[in-house]
Amino acid sequence: MRQFLFFLSLSMAMLSVHTFYGQQNQSGFILEGLVRSQDNQMPISGVSVSTDKGEYTSTNGLGEFKIRANIGDEIVFRSPEFETVFHRITSKEEIIVEVQDFEPNARGGSRATTAVEHQRYLDSANFYKKTDIEKSLDFISKSISNTTLEPSKTQVNHSLTLLGEIYLYHKQFDLAVANLEDALGAKKTVRTTLLLAKAYVLNKEYDAALEQLQKLDAVKNMPPYQRIEKEELKGDAQKGMGKSKLAQQFYEAGLKIAEKNQVTPKIIDLSTKIAENFAAQNRQIEAEDYYNNSIKLSKQQAPERQVREKEKVADFYNQTSRYEDEIQLRKENLSQLKRLPKKKVLLKDEPAQKDSITTQRINYKIANAYIAQEKLAEAIPYLQKSIVEADSDNDLVVQKDATRKLSEVYEYRGDFDKAYKTYQEYVSLVDTLYIRKEQELSRLARLNREVANKQNRISSLEQERELSQSKYSLAMTEQKLFETRANWQKVLIYSLVMGMALFALTAFFFYRSNQKQKLANNLLALKSLRSQMNPHFIFNALNSVNNYIAKSDERSANRYLSDFSLLMRTVLENSEEDFIPFTKELELIKLYLKLEHSRFPDKFDYDIKIADEVDIHAFQIPPMLVQPYIENAVWHGLRYKENKGELIVSVTQPQEDMLEIMVTDNGIGRKHSANLKTDNQRRQKSKGMGNIKKRIAILNDMYKNKVDVTINDLNEDETGTKVVLRLKKD
């Protein structure tokens, strides 16, 4: 590689233009600087700037940088375009690095200008990274399409690395992995490798993450902050694989580097992770020591950081049943949060963030701590505050949970009127929340389509760039053919092989993108069908409550309402999962049959038979899969039977990897039930059964015929119905 000459310019004559006085605080000051060519004053972007205390940044499109530093720190400038520069900071004045004989494009042309524009597009993409993913992706597209026929590997790496960061922030981990792998393929850098390892960890590909991190062990002169990140990610990967002791070793190694270099934010992060690891091993004394250390250090940081660390410790107290300590710490956080300005005001139709720390969430947790101690009177005011604050912030999730908990407290205290009134408010909130979820799913589906289109656009631009580069290389080859005709056959063969490889690579990228999009669409469809099924089931079940209320049977209504509340909580807890343990589905079936039998005791009896050889703990089943068939048996078969009928749910295991669930009833049968329907009912299809069929179709498409359902008449005279569900184990 060509060697470049360089020097540092710190002359007093330039102070009127370049002098900058840093913002002094507990952690040093902000040092500004510039990296440029000495000959034409052209800024040099993408230069890595770091200190020996772990701070890190890079120059922007104008060659400028800002970094936190102290007097006496050593600052390092790294770039593939020139030799590494080391400088000891002796003042707060701006540092200007000028590179002599700097030629970014040996062939001439406008490559330097293109590099500046490329960096500006990346700066814009980074600006919109957290607020507008669509705009951010547009700027990434421009940065790729703006490159020359022979863009530098650094430019390709920077574009794809930032694209991976954007997907990481928005939790699109599979897309982040794909683009960071491509970025690493263009150019291997420590930063990209660390980001790829982080994406692997978040995507639960722990072995792949460790493989990338092990490659960095051989890298010398790595800045302290990146060494800390490497050890921390190793610990995260080991923790994800359930290896707590190995995770602890890596966390402690990272903490040692952070303490040696006084990187306070990382000391706090690693202290908290070590504490969580000790807590998971039930080593409470060691966990509390590290938690206290993180709180102590967080007092030197922003108030928000201190609140976040205290909440983690409060959660630890809750897990160890130290409710008084938990309550005291959360009350301190409430007082501190009230003194902080709200960073944004939620719009009327904008939901609160699930992971944000808000006063309504803290009040709800305080109330739960009081309830755990059976101090119901003390819990009520905090639940009421949580409901009011959640309503003000449009936080329906907390408002729903706090309202449900308040209804339960009233019920425990025997105040059934307030309990029933509060429960009605809870049901109304559930309805509103489901409507919002459907709207959110629709918005996410649209956003996913837009993101997929833009990702395909970026992939196409990258492929076009590669193709253009291939054409350019081919043109240069043709020119050389006139000079060296003896090698024309060899060159032609190489060109054809390159074209075939590019075609195969393009086909592979399109196939992988289509498969990922198909999986995303299937997951969205499953969520949408589950959100439709749950209110359908809830509203059918509420008719039973109305039946008792109409009969003025208060005791039965209360008993039914209590069982129904438990059933609905079970349904809501399972509604977000594609598969749940069969034991949970069995509990739901028993509870539902109990409720329906209490409503129609003179219409049918039921029995649940589980064969001795069945291992019910070994199987997973889609939630609410069996219940609609039982509901059909009761409402369309047994309810119209003149004498008392019978419903049997039997569970067998015909094969080691197969579970068979059979629902049989001796009701009037499907044909007779269809004849009883009105013309309007015949024109309308069962929404519950339609959803079940769609869910089974999608699940079988995703998991290769995992679920099979057959429905037949039980008897030859077309009375009774037999439903057989067969579920295969992975």
- How much is the average pLDDT? 78
What is the β-strand count?
15
Strands in their spatial order, largest beta sheet = 10-12-13-15-14
- Outline, from the CA principal axes? globular
Hey, roughly how much beta strand do the residues contain? 5-15%
Structural class: alpha+beta
Radius of gyration: 32 Å
What portion of residues is helical? 55-70%
Provide the low-confidence segments as ranges.
1-26, 105-110, 343-354
Structural summary, described in words:
It contains 24 helices and 15 strands. The protein has helices at residues 15-18, 111-127, 133-145, 153-169, 173-186, 190-202, 206-215, 224-240, 244-260, 264-280, 284-298, 303-319, 323-339, 359-372, 376-392, 396-412, 416-483, 488-550, 554-574, 582-599, 627-638, 670-676, 679-683, 687-703; strands at residues 5-9, 29-37, 48-51, 56-58, 64-69, 74-79, 82-88, 95-100, 580-581, 604-610, 620-621, 645-655, 658-665, 707-713, 721-728. Strands 10-12-13-15-14 form a five-stranded mixed beta sheet. A hairpin with a 4-residue loop joins strand 3 (48-51) and strand 4. Helix 4 packs antiparallel against helix 5, helix 9 (244-260) packs antiparallel against helix 10 (264-280) and helix 15 (376-392) packs antiparallel against helix 16 (396-412). The protein is globular, with a radius of gyration of 32 Å.
